[in-house]
């Protein structure tokens, strides 16, 4: 990845803030946005140039768009982002989407059918006319602050116990995004670990690790999606064995 570029991160939440800090540590100038006045100081203290931007209410700051790349990590509610990117001549955009846009069951990858009613897919299409657009579709997010043992602990008669999990760790969210920054020819990629244990194996192990009551599953609806990436060779996942990751204490 080219050093000393200016990157604007639209939405410095769980992922966006962690990405921004990592990019700063790699020598980049990073601008970050929030919709909360209370979070501006926190961004500043982490070395992020803070901006108060609320696309839903058309509250923006023009200087935020003066950058080499904008990474959109604010979800599907993008308001008139496409209009602002055209107005301020944004050359490159990376939109963080979700593998939840894929329709149906079975094995899917970037070539598979999508559900065109999904908000993230609608947002992808809204941005499709912009130059230099790349879309990263993340699977389920885990990592600091999103420990999986708590997700289903104590619940009973959960469906699809034998279905595979489709997950990505925060460390790999950051790594894959930085790989896409360096590879602008990648226009669409799924962010998902190549390891897919069953729901019952993963969530029981995670709950037990945290000393919580393990969830109980049945096999109803067991044939669920298994998400792959057709472009898996561009990035080496660091968290690629979920049960080992759990057993090592996260």
From TrEMBL:
SUPFAM superfamilies: NAD(P)-binding Rossmann-fold domains (SSF51735). Residues 13-124 form the NAD(P)-binding domain. It comes from the Bacteria. One of its GO terms (cellular component) is cytoplasm. GO terms for molecular function: aldehyde dehydrogenase (NAD+) activity. This is NAD(P)H-binding protein. It comes from Mucilaginibacter myungsuensis.
């Amino acid at each position: 990845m080219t050093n000393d570029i200016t990157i604007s991160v639209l939405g410095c939440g769980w992922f966006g803030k962690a990405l921004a800090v990592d990019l700063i540590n790699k020598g980049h100038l990073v601008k970050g946005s929030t919709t909360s006045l209370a979070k501006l100081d926190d961004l500043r203290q982490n070395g992020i140039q803070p901006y108060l931007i609320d696309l839903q209410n058309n509250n923006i700051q023009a200087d935020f768009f003066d950058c080499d790349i904008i990474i959109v990590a604010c979800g599907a509610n993008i308001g008139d982002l496409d209009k602002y990117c055209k107005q301020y001549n944004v050359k490159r955009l990376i939109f963080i989407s979700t593998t939840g846009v894929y329709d149906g069951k079975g094995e899917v990858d970037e070539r598979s059918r999508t559900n065109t009613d999904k908000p993230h897919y609608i947002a992808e299409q809204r941005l499709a006319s912009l130059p230099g657009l790349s879309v990263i579709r993340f699977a389920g997010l885990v990592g600091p602050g999103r420990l999986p043992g708590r997700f289903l602990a104590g619940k009973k008669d959960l469906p699809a116990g034998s279905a595979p999990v489709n997950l990505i760790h925060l460390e790999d969210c950051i790594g894959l995004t930085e790989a896409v920054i360096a590879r602008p020819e990648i226009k669409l990629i799924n962010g998902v670990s190549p390891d897919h244990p069953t729901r019952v194996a993963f969530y029981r192990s995670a709950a037990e690790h945290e000393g919580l009551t393990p969830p109980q599953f049945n096999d109803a609806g067991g044939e669920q999606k298994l998400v792959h990436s057709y472009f898996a060779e561009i990035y080496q996942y660091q968290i690629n064995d979920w049960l080992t990751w759990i057993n090592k204490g996260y």
